[in-house]
Amino acid sequence: MLRILLVEDDPDVAMVVSALLEDAHYHVTVAANGKEGLDMALQERPELIISDFMMPILSGLEMIAKLHEAGYTNPILLCSAIPETQLPTERPSYGAFLRKPYSGAELLDAVTRLRKKANMS
Fold this sequence. Notes:
By secondary structure, this protein is α/β, with parallel strands linked by helices. 40% of the residues lie in helices and 20% in strands. It has a five-stranded parallel β-sheet with strand order 2-1-3-4-5, with helices on both faces.
């Protein structure tokens, strides 16, 4: 079962997204901010991370940069209501971007594409 870390500061969004992913047979752990997400990712090494961009303590991009510095190489899906073209120009790489609000089908499709790209079964 693929282990996904969901980093989302909005509890309602976190609850809905984690339920959707669990219904699709993924194991989901939730972090409420970028610092918590960083700590959990480095400790648990999930196969995939789904992260919001705008969060307290560390933004999604700050968290991703710190993960890369620590050697984390698994796929990351960054989500934001801000268009990708308006994110900071100097940003760490992530596997895919999903614009909020997104549908459940769009999220599951993005996860599937990242899994295929990373050759995860």
